[in-house]
Amino acid sequence: MIKRSRPQPVSLSKIADLSGRRFGDYAILRRLGQGGMGQVYLAEQLTLNRKVALKVLKPELADDANAMARFKLEAEAVAKATHSNIVQVYDFGQADGQTYMVLEYVDGRNLLDYIARRGVPDLNFATRIMMQVASALERAAELGITHRDIKPENILLTRKGDVKVADFGLSLDPKRRMGLNLTHSGDTMGTPSYMAPEQVEGKPIDPRTDIYSFGVTCYTMLTGGPPFQGSSPIEVAMAHLQREPKPLHELLPDLPEELCRIVHKMMAKLPEDRYQSARELSREISRLREHFSESIVSQTISIQVDSDVLNSIIPDDIGAIRPKPGSATEIGIAPPAVQPSSSGYALVLGLVALTILLSLAGGVLIGWRERATEGPLPHGEDIRPADALAGERIPRPSMRERALREAVDDYLSPGRGQDPRPGQTACMELGLFYLDAGRLDDARNLFQRLEKFNTPREFKGLGQIGRAVVLAMEHKPKESNIILKEIFTSYNPKSKQPKVGPIVITNPLKIRAEQQIAPVKTVLNHPRWHYYLSRTRYLNLLNGLKDDDMPPLFVLKAQELDVPSKKI
Q: How far apart are CA 228 and CA 368, in angstroms?
């Protein structure tokens, strides 16, 4: 049962501010806030020149064995749960008699602040958030960890719209908690507005408990407020046992029926009536996104593009789908070598149709203007969903996928022209589509298909890079690094060129390295692919590799972008 809460903590102004102090390698810059067990500061790790979050245990808890054990268990739980959607832990230690842990710094806002500032997210962004949180919960469940405090405040959003699940301070790992009494008298293990019925009753919990809390979080995200309110935490908590939330479709009649069903199933009173795993939930959300996108497209656009017209628009002599600064997609048209024939008018009409088709499918609407925001976030920036037009519009991935797959199949068919670049571009775009959607199985199948091409080398190189990225996202750093070493030679671009007298001799390793990566230079120079290369390095580092283990040329290429590891 829920125990009576302790008195409200004293205000921050009455707590000693550690700003300006130094804990070993960490220079404390400013205080960010406080939690139940400690204060959180923005700090700089001096040796690596990066921003981190420093969580310092409250001094009055330093002699509390249970508090110390919980604090350490939080660090251990996060350290095990390496995942791109979970705030990572870097260090744990003591300085000046105070215990601290060093966490990934997320430059953005939590979901509750986002809703308060900008309102509820649009359906595309909301379901993207759901996908990423479900992925994080899946990883935690794999390790036997139950978070126990999933709520909007613990879902952090980066400025690119990526999700980071934070605060594993209440997480339960049965293997590590045996023999420890970590439920201190007066503590409430969870937040009443988001607690599952079994938490309220003090019954055993498991990952399905997190699914319930996540369902309440989704309800809050979609409606702007939690399903139950009351005059006291006890009253709110008891509502989770005794009352049913108001149906979403009554509050929001335009909300997709399937989304309402998913959220209410997550919030089922009995654990056996909920989704039995976060993986099962992820599949449902993925199907919802695909189905919803298709239904929107069918209502929005009725353009019929014959497959022959499509094939006549995308061949080598016409151009290819190419990225362009400031836009998500662009149709590039090579100037005709001869005067257009009578079929030219039909070709132009087909090209216009395809442009509209791909624009809608990719979420790029001509003349669309972003809705006004209520003001900038601190530092003059705002959180933006990663999708090209997240906000008011919902991308049409299924239609875009069909167009890209047809183009890829055409380019990979026998007897195509000698220039492989348009085909490589189409494959790059389809690979990005799968990676952005988290569809790693589809991405792997595409890249393995490309790897089978010995010629042209552009296809094989893209396949290798793509598979290295997928393996990194699957937390398989060694396998990922093996492929990276096949792509990038051992040449170190920072090494000095040998000299014979006044003449500088070109390093033969450099020549070989440039020849080896020549077929994939388009990939290396593509902004989104550059991001995934940087992410590959970042994930491989988190999973135990060091920069010295990876090819120096790859590390250099990955560092050229403003990578995630520089923003944490």
A: 38
Contacts of 223 (CB under 8 A, 6+ apart): 120, 248, 251, 252
Domain boundaries, the chain: 12-104, 108-298, 301-336+344-365+384-419, 454-568
Return phi, psi of residue 418, to 5°: -75, -30
pLDDT (tens digit per residue) in 58-94: 888 877 888 888 888 778 877 877 788 999 889 998 8
In a 3-state reduction of DSSP, which class is residue 550? coil
Question: For domain 108-298, is the CATH number 3.10.129.10?
Answer: no
pTM of the model: 0.52
Predicted confidence at residue 505, as pLDDT, reads: 40
Phi, psi torsion values for 250, nearest 5 degrees:
-80, -40
518 φψ region: left (φ > 0), alpha (ψ -120 to 50), beta (else): alpha
Dihedral pair phi/psi, residue 284, rounded to 5°:
-65, -45
Of 218, 198, 324, which is closest to residue 261 (Cα–Cα)? 218
What does the DSSP 8-state code read for residue 86? B
Question: How much is the CA Rg of the chain, to the nearest whole Å?
Answer: 26
Question: Is 138:184 a contact under the CB 8 Å cutoff?
Answer: no
**Tokens 């700089």 — which residue?**
44
CA distance 518 to 120: 46
Place of tokens 């959220």: 263
Which secondary structure element, helix H or strand E, spans residue 466, and what is its range? helix 457-473
Q: Which of 346-355, 380-389, 509-518 has the weakest average pLDDT?
A: 380-389
Handedness of CA 517, 523, 525, 528 (dihedral sign): negative
How many angstroms separate the Cα of 405 from the Cα of each of 277, 330, 398, 409, 446? 31, 17, 10, 6, 10
Neighbours of 122 (CB within 10 A): 18
Is the distance from CB of 395 to CB of 363 less than 8 angstroms?
Answer: yes
Helix (H, G, I), strand (E, B) or coil at 494: coil
Across the range 310-331, mean pLDDT stands at 35
For 552, the token pair is: 């120096």
- CA-wise closest residue to 423 among 439, 405, 445: 405
Q: Are strands 22-23 and 503-504 parallel, antiparallel or unpaired?
A: unpaired
Residues 135-150 have pLDDT tens digits of 999 988 888 888 888 9
Q: What CATH number is given for 12-104 in this structure?
A: 3.30.200.20
Write the CA distances from 236 to 29, 123, 227, 389, integer angstroms.
Answer: 38, 28, 10, 37
User: 337 to each of 190, 326, 451, how far by Cα in Å?
Assistant: 70, 30, 34
Cα 511 to Cα 213, 480, 486, 507: the distances in Å are 56, 25, 16, 7
The residues that are catalytic are: 149
Here the tokens at position 238 are: 């008891």
Contact 282, 345 (CB under 8 A): no
Asked if residue 490 lies in contact with residue 552, where contact means CB atoms within 8 angstroms, the answer is yes
